[in-house]
Amino acid sequence: xxxxxxxxxxxxxxxxxxxxxxxxxxxxxxxxxxxxxxxxxxxxxxxxxxxxxxxxxxxxxxxxxxxxxxxxxxxxxxxxxxxxxxxxxxxxxxxxxxxxxxxxxxxxxxxxxxxxxxxxxxxxxxxxxxxxxxxxxxxxxxxxxxxxxxxxxxxxxxxxxxxxxxxxxxxxxxxxxxxxxxxxxxxxxxxxxxxxxxxxxxxxxxxxxxxxxxxxxxxxxxxxxxxxxxxxxxxxxxxxxxxxxxxxxxxxxxxxxxxxxxxxxxxxxxxxxxxxxxxxxxxxxxxxxxxxxxxxxxxxxxxxxxxxxxxxxxxxxxxxxxxxxxxxxxxxxxxxxxxxxxxxxxxxxxxxxxxxxxxxxxxxxxxxxxxxxxxxxxxxxxxxxxxxxxxxxxxxxxxxxxxxxxxxxxxxxxxxxxxxxxxxxxxxxxxxxxxxxxxxxxxxxxxxxxxxxxxxxxxxxxxxxxxxxxxxxxxxxxxxxxxxxxxxxxxxxxxxxxxxxxxx
Length: 504
Known about the structure:
Elements: H1 9-18, E1 22-26, E2 32-33, E3 40-43, H2 46-57, E4 61-66, E5 74-75, E6 80-81, H3 85-102, E7 103-113, H4 118-129, E8 134-141, E9 157-164, E10 175-176, H5 179-182, E11 196-200, E12 202-203, E13 214-215, E14 221-222, E15 230-231, H6 235-243, E16 247-248, E17 258-262, E18 269-270, E19 275-276, H7 278-281, H8 284-295, H9 306-316, E20 322-325, H10 332-339, E21 343-348, H11 352-365, E22 383-392, H12 406-418, E23 430-434, E24 437-441, E25 457-458, H13 460-465, E26 473-477, E27 479-480, H14 484-489, E28 492-496
Parallel strand pairs: 3-21, 3-22, 4-7, 4-20, 8-19, 20-21, 24-26, 25-27, 26-28
Antiparallel strand pairs: 1-22, 2-22, 5-6, 7-9, 8-9, 10-18, 11-17, 12-15, 13-14, 16-17, 23-24
Helix pairs in contact: 1-3, 2-3, 3-4, 9-10, 10-11
């Protein structure tokens, strides 16, 4: 598979690994509504925020939508969209690497972009997610009128690249049938099975039984299918369908036969297509009007309409499943996910995480009726929690930050060892059992002995106090006072804090 090379590529590949693991600290003054809400807004660099979230949410996200900088060479009020090309790749690659780790096996990521970087994005995304997991490119017709100020062409569309974690597993949901689709179905012969529409009986695909003459009820002889084609069904099957009144011969009974497809028998929805018109999912002006209604001024220049995000979340997720947007912007993804009953994590670096996202989501919780609210019968409720990036787990010298809580270090160690998120209570030295191995942490006086030489050190007494496990054990602590022979006898691997803690 071709690999894209750029200036400092090798340094780029190290970025995610070398980004320090930081703690998340809740700012309760900005959290709102349900205090136990699982909806999170995180303010901070998205790379550091993703790293901090990974121990808790790896492999749990069903759908990601990201709207990264397009690199249009423009300078917007809230972010600089004018990066040197290699810098843009340096920005995107490590973030895509981390985002992939959050996806469920049946999850997908949707990336909005335009022609400035779309083709380069495709190459690096192929590398990160695997070319076989590329699903398709959505064309979103975003403008309803041409831009007369355009230098060459009026750019009327954006792209949305869709990747699955595993394309063999992931499947899109069908889009509900609307009035437009149902209008095509009529009942010209008053069939008791209801409205129907016709489909061609012939096709170009070779079919050994698909060449035969047909005599119409009106008397016309049709010598065979149109040139180069074959009837889709055998002669025997054809006359069975005729007997069951599933063949339409035209009003005069002499037309080329067609198959009747009944509305009552079609799928409950429509297979998603790759061209999305603004009539169906909104346009940029609609998005700006939504922002104006919320804030009273044109406070964000590049929002996405709520209908566009609704379409994506509907196709790719269900109620209570986890949605993520690590370039949250004005908060559209979080607002739509909230109204649609999805859990969500939104990450935004800029100050508008506070000035835009928080006020917007407060209004959503209170039941605001803009955007898709009426379409999904949104009445308000729920809540969200607001976090900022806190202290690094390790200092510049690789030493453990003593401000780190037991639960935070437990989450980090568990994920480093197992590559699955930590879901333990955070109040037991036994973190959990994975693949037959039990993992323990002696830290911060978890056994009730906070003396330097107390419960953080593995001694025979401490070992006797640990929850039992009949199998291999990995124990993290500040020191070990048990001999190597005894450790082997009881199947213990001891790892010393902080030196043996993996820094991802």
